[in-house]
Amino acid sequence: MSMANDVDRTAKPKAKGGGLGEAVKIALQALLLALVVRTFLFQPFNIPSESMKATLLVNDYLFVSKYAYGYSRYSFPFGIHLFDGRVWSAPPKRGDVVVFKLPRDNSTDYIKRVIGMPGDKIQMIDGALYINGQPVKREKIADYVTTDEFGAKVNVPRWKETLPNGVSYETLDQDPNGFEDNTPIYEVPPDHYFMMGDNRDNSTDSRVPPPAGVGYVPFENLVGRAEVIFFSVDKNAHAWEFWKWPWTIRWDRLFKTL
After folding, report:
1. Cα–Cα distance between 33 and 12 in angstroms, integer?
2. Inside any domain, residue 234
3. Looking at the domain assignment, is residue 19 inside a domain?
4. Is residue 1 part of a domain?
5. What would the pLDDT profile of 25-50 be if each residue is shown by its tens digit?
6. Count of domains for the chain
Protein backbone atom coordinates (compact mmCIF):
# COMPACT_ATOMS: atom_id res chain seq x y z
CA MET A 1 0.00 0.00 0.00
CA SER A 2 1.57 3.18 -1.14
CA MET A 3 1.78 6.18 1.14
CA ALA A 4 1.22 9.78 -0.10
CA ASN A 5 4.08 12.14 0.57
CA ASP A 6 3.54 14.29 3.64
CA VAL A 7 3.19 17.88 2.23
CA ASP A 8 2.93 20.98 4.42
CA ARG A 9 0.00 22.70 2.76
CA THR A 10 0.38 25.76 4.98
CA ALA A 11 3.75 26.70 3.49
CA LYS A 12 3.61 29.70 1.18
CA PRO A 13 5.75 30.09 -1.93
CA LYS A 14 8.54 32.57 -1.55
CA ALA A 15 8.05 35.88 -3.28
CA LYS A 16 10.45 36.59 -6.08
CA GLY A 17 12.93 39.30 -5.39
CA GLY A 18 12.07 42.69 -6.93
CA GLY A 19 13.26 45.62 -4.95
CA LEU A 20 15.03 48.55 -6.55
CA GLY A 21 15.57 46.87 -9.92
CA GLU A 22 11.87 46.19 -10.41
CA ALA A 23 10.97 49.75 -9.41
CA VAL A 24 13.45 51.17 -11.91
CA LYS A 25 12.05 48.92 -14.65
CA ILE A 26 8.49 50.08 -13.98
CA ALA A 27 9.58 53.73 -13.91
CA LEU A 28 11.39 53.37 -17.25
CA GLN A 29 8.36 51.70 -18.84
CA ALA A 30 6.08 54.47 -17.60
CA LEU A 31 8.49 57.11 -18.88
CA LEU A 32 8.68 55.44 -22.29
CA LEU A 33 4.90 55.20 -22.49
CA ALA A 34 4.51 58.87 -21.56
CA LEU A 35 7.10 59.83 -24.20
CA VAL A 36 5.29 57.85 -26.89
CA VAL A 37 1.92 59.39 -25.98
CA ARG A 38 3.37 62.92 -25.87
CA THR A 39 5.23 62.52 -29.17
CA PHE A 40 2.66 60.71 -31.28
CA LEU A 41 -0.77 61.15 -29.68
CA PHE A 42 -1.51 63.99 -27.24
CA GLN A 43 0.54 66.75 -25.66
CA PRO A 44 -0.73 68.96 -22.82
CA PHE A 45 -0.41 72.74 -23.06
CA ASN A 46 -1.51 75.59 -20.84
CA ILE A 47 -2.64 79.04 -21.95
CA PRO A 48 -0.47 81.93 -20.69
CA SER A 49 -2.05 84.88 -22.52
CA GLU A 50 -5.41 86.38 -23.53
CA SER A 51 -4.88 86.32 -27.30
CA MET A 52 -7.55 83.60 -27.80
CA LYS A 53 -10.03 84.99 -25.26
CA ALA A 54 -12.86 84.07 -24.82
CA THR A 55 -12.37 80.74 -26.62
CA LEU A 56 -9.34 80.07 -24.43
CA LEU A 57 -8.60 81.74 -21.10
CA VAL A 58 -5.40 82.17 -19.13
CA ASN A 59 -4.80 79.00 -17.08
CA ASP A 60 -6.81 76.75 -19.36
CA TYR A 61 -5.05 73.40 -19.73
CA LEU A 62 -5.72 71.51 -22.94
CA PHE A 63 -4.75 68.46 -24.93
CA VAL A 64 -3.39 68.90 -28.45
CA SER A 65 -3.57 65.99 -30.90
CA LYS A 66 -0.13 65.44 -32.42
CA TYR A 67 -1.40 63.11 -35.15
CA ALA A 68 -4.00 65.52 -36.62
CA TYR A 69 -1.67 66.97 -39.27
CA GLY A 70 0.97 64.24 -39.39
CA TYR A 71 4.45 64.62 -37.94
CA SER A 72 7.33 67.02 -38.49
CA ARG A 73 10.56 67.59 -36.60
CA TYR A 74 8.57 69.84 -34.24
CA SER A 75 6.53 66.83 -33.15
CA PHE A 76 9.54 65.51 -31.28
CA PRO A 77 10.92 66.70 -27.93
CA PHE A 78 13.52 69.46 -28.29
CA GLY A 79 12.78 69.73 -32.03
CA ILE A 80 15.11 66.88 -32.94
CA HIS A 81 15.74 67.33 -36.66
CA LEU A 82 15.15 63.80 -37.97
CA PHE A 83 13.67 64.87 -41.33
CA ASP A 84 12.31 67.84 -43.26
CA GLY A 85 8.65 68.48 -44.05
CA ARG A 86 5.87 66.24 -42.70
CA VAL A 87 5.05 62.54 -42.84
CA TRP A 88 1.49 61.12 -42.89
CA SER A 89 0.50 64.74 -43.38
CA ALA A 90 -3.01 66.13 -43.49
CA PRO A 91 -3.65 69.87 -43.92
CA PRO A 92 -5.50 71.81 -41.22
CA LYS A 93 -9.04 72.98 -41.83
CA ARG A 94 -9.98 76.62 -41.85
CA GLY A 95 -11.08 77.48 -38.33
CA ASP A 96 -8.94 74.90 -36.51
CA VAL A 97 -7.30 76.06 -33.27
CA VAL A 98 -3.65 75.13 -33.73
CA VAL A 99 -0.44 75.06 -31.70
CA PHE A 100 2.59 75.92 -33.81
CA LYS A 101 6.22 76.90 -33.47
CA LEU A 102 6.81 80.61 -33.95
CA PRO A 103 8.53 80.95 -37.34
CA ARG A 104 11.04 83.58 -36.24
CA ASP A 105 12.69 81.26 -33.70
CA ASN A 106 11.16 77.82 -34.44
CA SER A 107 11.00 77.10 -30.71
CA THR A 108 8.31 79.21 -29.01
CA ASP A 109 4.84 77.64 -28.91
CA TYR A 110 1.93 79.82 -30.07
CA ILE A 111 -1.75 78.99 -30.32
CA LYS A 112 -4.07 80.71 -32.82
CA ARG A 113 -6.91 79.96 -35.22
CA VAL A 114 -6.32 79.04 -38.87
CA ILE A 115 -7.92 81.79 -40.94
CA GLY A 116 -6.05 81.78 -44.24
CA MET A 117 -5.15 78.76 -46.36
CA PRO A 118 -2.35 78.63 -48.96
CA GLY A 119 -3.15 81.02 -51.81
CA ASP A 120 -5.80 82.97 -49.88
CA LYS A 121 -5.90 86.75 -49.75
CA ILE A 122 -6.64 88.01 -46.23
CA GLN A 123 -7.50 91.56 -45.17
CA MET A 124 -9.08 93.41 -42.24
CA ILE A 125 -11.28 96.41 -43.07
CA ASP A 126 -12.78 98.41 -40.19
CA GLY A 127 -12.49 95.38 -37.91
CA ALA A 128 -14.20 93.02 -40.36
CA LEU A 129 -12.40 90.01 -41.83
CA TYR A 130 -12.23 89.57 -45.61
CA ILE A 131 -11.14 86.36 -47.34
CA ASN A 132 -10.45 86.54 -51.06
CA GLY A 133 -12.28 89.84 -51.30
CA GLN A 134 -15.44 88.60 -49.58
CA PRO A 135 -16.48 89.68 -46.06
CA VAL A 136 -16.75 86.87 -43.54
CA LYS A 137 -20.24 86.60 -42.05
CA ARG A 138 -20.21 88.51 -38.77
CA GLU A 139 -23.05 89.15 -36.33
CA LYS A 140 -23.07 91.10 -33.08
CA ILE A 141 -23.94 89.07 -29.99
CA ALA A 142 -24.10 89.88 -26.27
CA ASP A 143 -21.07 91.66 -24.85
CA TYR A 144 -18.43 89.63 -23.08
CA VAL A 145 -18.22 90.69 -19.44
CA THR A 146 -14.79 90.62 -17.85
CA THR A 147 -12.84 92.56 -15.22
CA ASP A 148 -9.93 94.95 -15.49
CA GLU A 149 -6.77 94.99 -13.35
CA PHE A 150 -8.67 96.85 -10.62
CA GLY A 151 -11.52 94.33 -10.48
CA ALA A 152 -14.06 96.59 -12.18
CA LYS A 153 -16.48 95.03 -14.67
CA VAL A 154 -15.83 95.74 -18.34
CA ASN A 155 -18.16 95.01 -21.26
CA VAL A 156 -16.29 93.99 -24.40
CA PRO A 157 -18.07 93.94 -27.78
CA ARG A 158 -18.39 90.36 -29.00
CA TRP A 159 -19.06 89.01 -32.48
CA LYS A 160 -19.87 85.64 -33.99
CA GLU A 161 -17.89 84.94 -37.15
CA THR A 162 -18.73 82.16 -39.60
CA LEU A 163 -16.02 81.15 -42.06
CA PRO A 164 -16.78 80.07 -45.64
CA ASN A 165 -16.58 76.39 -44.62
CA GLY A 166 -19.25 76.89 -41.93
CA VAL A 167 -16.99 76.96 -38.86
CA SER A 168 -18.29 79.49 -36.31
CA TYR A 169 -16.57 81.00 -33.28
CA GLU A 170 -16.65 84.15 -31.18
CA THR A 171 -14.28 87.10 -31.39
CA LEU A 172 -13.73 90.11 -29.14
CA ASP A 173 -13.29 93.66 -30.45
CA GLN A 174 -12.36 95.82 -27.50
CA ASP A 175 -11.11 98.72 -29.61
CA PRO A 176 -13.22 99.52 -32.72
CA ASN A 177 -10.23 101.38 -34.17
CA GLY A 178 -7.52 98.93 -33.19
CA PHE A 179 -4.08 98.95 -34.76
CA GLU A 180 -4.76 95.81 -36.83
CA ASP A 181 -8.41 96.58 -37.69
CA ASN A 182 -7.31 97.90 -41.10
CA THR A 183 -4.56 96.05 -42.92
CA PRO A 184 -3.10 95.58 -46.36
CA ILE A 185 -3.98 92.45 -48.32
CA TYR A 186 -1.94 89.44 -47.22
CA GLU A 187 -1.46 86.73 -49.84
CA VAL A 188 -0.67 83.44 -48.14
CA PRO A 189 2.28 81.60 -49.76
CA PRO A 190 2.15 77.90 -50.71
CA ASP A 191 2.51 75.51 -47.74
CA HIS A 192 1.86 78.36 -45.28
CA TYR A 193 -1.12 79.42 -43.17
CA PHE A 194 -2.48 82.70 -41.84
CA MET A 195 -3.19 82.60 -38.11
CA MET A 196 -5.28 84.99 -36.02
CA GLY A 197 -6.26 85.24 -32.36
CA ASP A 198 -9.93 85.47 -31.40
CA ASN A 199 -9.16 88.44 -29.14
CA ARG A 200 -8.53 90.63 -32.15
CA ASP A 201 -7.11 93.71 -30.40
CA ASN A 202 -4.85 91.72 -28.10
CA SER A 203 -3.18 89.22 -30.38
CA THR A 204 0.20 89.25 -32.08
CA ASP A 205 -0.53 87.03 -35.05
CA SER A 206 -0.08 86.76 -38.82
CA ARG A 207 -1.31 90.34 -39.26
CA VAL A 208 2.01 91.43 -37.75
CA PRO A 209 4.99 90.48 -39.93
CA PRO A 210 8.31 89.35 -38.44
CA PRO A 211 10.53 90.17 -36.73
CA ALA A 212 7.98 91.71 -34.33
CA GLY A 213 5.08 89.41 -35.20
CA VAL A 214 4.19 85.97 -36.50
CA GLY A 215 3.80 86.37 -40.24
CA TYR A 216 2.88 83.36 -42.35
CA VAL A 217 3.27 80.00 -40.60
CA PRO A 218 4.90 77.12 -42.52
CA PHE A 219 3.01 73.82 -42.57
CA GLU A 220 6.09 72.19 -41.05
CA ASN A 221 5.78 74.37 -37.93
CA LEU A 222 2.36 73.02 -36.94
CA VAL A 223 2.54 70.99 -33.73
CA GLY A 224 -1.07 69.86 -33.47
CA ARG A 225 -4.75 70.68 -33.13
CA ALA A 226 -6.28 71.80 -29.84
CA GLU A 227 -8.96 69.27 -28.91
CA VAL A 228 -10.28 69.64 -25.37
CA ILE A 229 -9.80 71.66 -22.17
CA PHE A 230 -9.10 69.10 -19.45
CA PHE A 231 -8.45 71.52 -16.57
CA SER A 232 -8.89 75.21 -15.84
CA VAL A 233 -8.28 77.49 -12.87
CA ASP A 234 -8.81 81.19 -12.27
CA LYS A 235 -6.37 83.60 -13.89
CA ASN A 236 -4.68 84.52 -10.61
CA ALA A 237 -4.57 80.97 -9.22
CA HIS A 238 -2.05 78.16 -9.59
CA ALA A 239 -2.98 74.69 -10.76
CA TRP A 240 -0.84 73.05 -8.07
CA GLU A 241 -2.76 74.76 -5.23
CA PHE A 242 -5.12 71.79 -4.89
CA TRP A 243 -6.45 72.96 -1.53
CA LYS A 244 -8.01 75.94 -3.33
CA TRP A 245 -9.59 73.92 -6.15
CA PRO A 246 -13.18 74.06 -4.88
CA TRP A 247 -13.04 77.85 -5.35
CA THR A 248 -10.49 78.32 -8.15
CA ILE A 249 -11.42 75.61 -10.66
CA ARG A 250 -13.55 76.90 -13.52
CA TRP A 251 -15.87 73.90 -13.46
CA ASP A 252 -17.88 74.99 -16.51
CA ARG A 253 -14.76 74.78 -18.69
CA LEU A 254 -13.71 71.23 -17.82
CA PHE A 255 -13.81 68.82 -20.79
CA LYS A 256 -14.95 71.56 -23.14
CA THR A 257 -14.17 70.61 -26.73
CA LEU A 258 -12.65 73.09 -29.16
Report:
1. 35
2. yes
3. no
4. no
5. 677 766 666 665 566 677 999 999 99
6. 1
**Domain annotation covers residue 25:** no
CATH number of the domain residue 168 falls in = 2.10.109.10
User: Any idea which residues carry the catalytic annotation?
Assistant: 51, 112
0.70 exceeded by pTM: yes
Buried b (16+ CB within 10 A) or exposed e, 15-53: eeeeeeeeeeeeeeeeeeeeeeeeeeebbebebebbbbb
- The string of pLDDT tens digits covering residues 135-181 is 999 999 999 998 877 778 889 999 999 999 999 999 999 888 888 99
Residue 215 amino acid letter: G
Domain of 160?
Answer: 43-257
